[in-house]
């Protein structure tokens, strides 16, 4: 078979390579888990992560540090959303990261119903500084659960000819895993979010009694266990990576519970991360969060 050296094939390849650079630069943990994905799925998950990361950088400091005022950050974020949706519709973008995402979205059935809630949550970071239970749930859906649903679409549809919806149980598992990941990060980053960014996502132990730290951790563990029970039903070339990511956040949840109220960011040592990845590689079942 003669290799395809057409212009669009080269452009597609370059866009995928650009997305891979983003994930390797910004997340060692997520990058490690992505390497456990089968080749059918791996580039697609990298493409999703890269777009999510770029949008996050607009609202989480990089744009501000470049001297961009809040109104300009909103304008750039809105433009990125519209460029993404247009690229999904037309199959091309001059922005390599957007192009990579759009190619995945078109192949795997990721539509505006997932893209728009994500950007809506990103806009929330420019507009809302303190969340109640309702706004927290809405924010987490757009910022994390839909990202899990995007990844699930790639697990189910990558390499196929016609995208199809995922099984409802898998959808629930993807949403709950995304929610757990986000709430773990909220707890880990609480001092930074409140002190540096002026944002309170959880209202932990606040005067209004919105949530307690233990209640948040209990919710995280329930979500992790529900998601863990569904992982064996994922396609075989995805299970190891999702198990590794699930177990990493289970380890973080346990460490957050042991650490109590601290300003130190809780981390999992690299040796432990590698051990969790090795455990997932040999096909071990996901860890129980409450164990």
Please tag this protein with its features.
single chain; 291 residues; mainly alpha; 13 helices; 0% strand
Description of the molecule:
Pfam families: SQS_PSY. This is Phytoene/squalene synthase family protein. InterPro entries: Isoprenoid_synthase_dom_sf, Squ/phyt_synthse. It comes from Microbacterium plantarum. It contains 13 helices and no strands. It has 291 residues and is mainly α. The longest helix is centred in the middle third of the chain and has 25 residues. It is globular and about 55 Å long.
Please write out the topology:
Blueprint (H helix, E strand, L loop, with lengths): L6 H20 L1 H8 L6 H18 L2 H4 L4 H21 L5 H13 L3 H16 L5 H25 L10 H21 L1 H6 L17 H18 L5 H24 L10 H12 L10
Helix pairs in contact: 1-3, 1-6, 2-12, 3-6, 3-7, 3-8, 5-6, 5-7, 6-8, 7-8, 8-9, 9-11, 9-12, 11-12, 12-13
In short:
With 291 residues, the protein is mainly alpha-helical.
């Amino acid at each position: 078979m003669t290799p395809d050296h057409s212009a669009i094939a080269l452009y597609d390849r370059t866009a995928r390579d650009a997305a891979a650079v983003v994930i390797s630069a910004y997340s060692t943990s997520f990058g490690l888990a992505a390497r456990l994905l089968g080749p059918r799925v791996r580039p697609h998950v990298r493409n999703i992560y890269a777009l999510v990361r770029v949008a996050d950088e607009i609202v989480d400091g990089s744009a501000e540090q470049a001297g961009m005022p809040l109104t300009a950050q909103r304008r750039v974020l809105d433009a990125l959303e519209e460029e993404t949706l247009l690229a999904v519709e037309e199959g091309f973008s001059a922005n390599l990261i957007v192009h990579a995402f759009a190619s995945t979205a078109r192949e795997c059935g990721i539509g505006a119903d997932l893209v728009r809630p994500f950007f809506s949550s990103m806009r929330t970071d420019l507009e809302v500084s303190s969340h109640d239970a309702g706004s927290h749930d809405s924010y987490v859906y757009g910022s994390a659960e839909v990202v899990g649903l995007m990844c699930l679409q790639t697990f189910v549809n990558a390499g196929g000819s016609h995208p199809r919806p995922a099984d409802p149980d898998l959808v629930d598992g993807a949403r709950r895993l995304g929610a757990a990941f986000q709430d773990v990060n909220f707890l880990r980053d609480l001092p930074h979010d409140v002190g540096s960014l002026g944002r309170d996502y959880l209202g932990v132990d606040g005067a209004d009694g919105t949530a307690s730290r233990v209640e948040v951790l209990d919710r995280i563990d329930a979500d992790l266990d529900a998601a863990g029970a569904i992982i064996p039903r994922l396609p075989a070339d995805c299970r190891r990576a999702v198990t590794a990511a699930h177990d990493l956040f289970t380890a973080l949840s346990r460490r957050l519970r042991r650490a109590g109220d601290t300003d130190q960011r809780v981390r999992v040592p690299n040796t432990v991360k590698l051990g969790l990845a090795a455990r997932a590689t040999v096909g071990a079942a996901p860890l129980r969060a409450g164990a």
